[in-house]
């Protein structure tokens, strides 16, 4: 009896040693390994999302620099224009507008070329030129809005594809559930969802930032146009 108890204790100690020796080692998984583990379907969707991210970043920085350049107007610009117009020096005013070369200066130049016509015609000409300037400022910005909505949908598409792969593998596993069999489909489902949301969030934030910057330039254009029209309407 005593020998049996001693043998049981020894067996337990040996088992404990095996468990101790076989402690689970923490496994790390890099982003590259995670993408590769997602299978071909996941890699294709991740590649599409990466291209959308590159496109979004390019549009954002290209438009940001263009809008920033468009908003830089000399604070003394309108005072010079009004002095030239008051003294009848329209050619000098047009030259100043050409040298400044900003949306505001182009609108004022359009108004200067219409001096002598009814004020309503001048206002209409400036408004038409303003629409063209706004269109130029908003060039490709709508693509960011499209990416912000399409990227999460593409990511969810990867989720559906990954779940289909996981269910297919599970159905062909003979009734035994093995995590390594489901891993590929689950990796596809999770990685594409995260990637889609990240790209969508970045595109959404950059789009709204550009909209705010564009609106500031538009307000600047409107303010200077009104100042120019008010000056023309002043009695001589």
Automatic annotation (TrEMBL):
TM annotation in the entry: 34-61, 141-167, 187-207
InterPro entries, A to Z: ExbB/TolQ_transport, MotA_ExbB_proton_chnl
Residue ranges annotated for the MotA/TolQ/ExbB proton channel domain, each copy included: 100-222
Family: Belongs to the exbB/tolQ family.
Membrane topology summary: Multi-pass membrane protein
GO biological process: protein import
Name assigned to this protein: MotA/TolQ/ExbB proton channel family protein
One matching Pfam family: MotA_ExbB
Compartment(s): Cell membrane; Membrane
Keywords, comma-separated and alphabetical: Cell membrane, Membrane, Protein transport, Transmembrane, Transmembrane helix, Transport
This protein's GO CC annotations: plasma membrane
Organism superkingdom: Bacteria
